[in-house]
Write a structure and sequence with these properties.
This protein is of the alpha/beta class. It is built from 8 helices and 9 strands. It has helices at about 20-30, 60-65, 85-95, 105-115, 130-140, 145-155, 170-185, 195-200; strands at about 5-10, 35, 40, 55, 70-75, 80-85, 100, 120-125, 165-170. Strands 2-7-1-8-9 form a 5-stranded parallel β-sheet, with helices on both faces. A 4-stranded mixed β-sheet has the order 4-3-6-5. It is globular.
Length: about 200
């Protein structure tokens, strides 16, 4: 029998709780689930840690890596580039772990085009009102940035149809449990790699 490692793509509006969910999954399953660290062209912000928050590689280096096809996906968001380096995902797969990509919708669709095996999960807030409240509570952005993020929500929701699953993040522990169930279900799916029938028959 063969249990494949999954590439889990997690997206959703800013403030939906994607980062908190991903962190909780990794903390709960440190040996079997890893979150891929994205690269970015932007500068380090207050409170961020290089090679832990992002790989900060600068715009010129980022564009060079695009030219050399070193990204699994990338997107330009709010004027800055963000992307997933192929070597980072390969490194995590070598650890026999399921790999989470917490990325924007543009990048998620690039992944879907390249791999039908990827599992796309869209994280939804319980309501628009709660989403707005979360953005205000986290005190990370100025009022103008918060409004820009809220204005973007309607266009982001149009991508839902391209995802495999929708998880409403009302309570973190419930959202984590749902994603754990998705992982189990995906690994039980039948395909030519899931179950080696010939090997099984030899043992009868």
């Amino acid at each position: 029998m063969y249990e494949r490692n999954l590439l889990l793509v997690i997206s959703g509006p800013s403030g939906a709780g994607k980062g908190t969910i991903c962190k909780a999954l990794v903390e709960k399953h440190p040996k079997t689930i890893q979150c891929s660290l994205s690269a970015t062209s932007r500068d380090v912000r207050t409170g961020e840690i290089p090679n832990k928050t992002y790989y900060y590689i600068g715009k010129d280096n980022f564009l060079e890596k695009i030219e050399n096809n070193q990204f699994l996906e990338y997107a330009k968001v709010y004027g800055n580039y963000y992307g997933t380096l192929k070597q980072e995902v390969q490194r995590l797969f070598s650890l026999k772990a399921d790999v989470i990509l917490e990325i924007e919708m543009q990048g998620a669709l690039q992944i879907r085009e390249k791999s039908q095996d990827a599992v796309l999960i869209f994280i939804m807030p319980p309501s628009f009102k709660e989403l707005s409240a979360r953005l205000m509570r986290r005190k990370r952005d100025c009022e103008e940035d918060i409004q820009n993020r809220l204005d973007k929500v309607s266009s982001e929701l149009k991508y839902i149809k391209d995802y495999d699953y929708i998880v409403v993040n009302d309570k973190i522990e419930d959202a984590v449990a749902k994603i754990e169930s998705i992982i189990v279900a995906e690994k039980c799916k039948m395909d030519e790699r899931t179950f080696d029938i010939e090997t099984f028959i030899k043992d009868i």
